[in-house]
Design a protein that fits this description.
The chain is an alpha+beta fold. The chain has a single domain, classed as YaeB-like fold. The chain is elongated, with a radius of gyration of 13 Å. It starts with a strand and ends with a strand.
Length: 87
């Protein structure tokens, strides 16, 4: 059985390229790990899921926010956009 993971979509360069705040990126990735654990618990048989994918989600974290999409059939949480708060 495949396992749940998260990834940047379409790529890390596209989503976080140009953000040089490594502590902020670490917070994004830690939160993504939490989202993966929650999705794995909610969609126990993710690859067999037949319903519509959940709506886009937004996570507000210290220093900014990010937008994500959970796709149970892929067993993935896709990070689509990362926004660093203005300083």
């Amino acid at each position: 059985m495949a396992e749940w993971h998260w990834e940047y979509d379409p790529s890390a360069e596209h989503v976080i390229g140009g953000i040089d705040d490594l502590a902020f990126i670490a917070r994004v990735e830690e939160t993504a790990d939490e989202l993966v654990r929650a999705a794995a618990a909610q969609y126990l048989e993710g690859t067999l899921y037949q319903g519509a994918s959940p709506a886009l989600g937004q996570e507000i974290i210290p220093g900014g926010m990010f937008v994500h999409q959970t796709v149970p059939r892929h067993q993935r949480v896709y990070i689509l956009q990362v926004t660093l708060a203005p300083r």
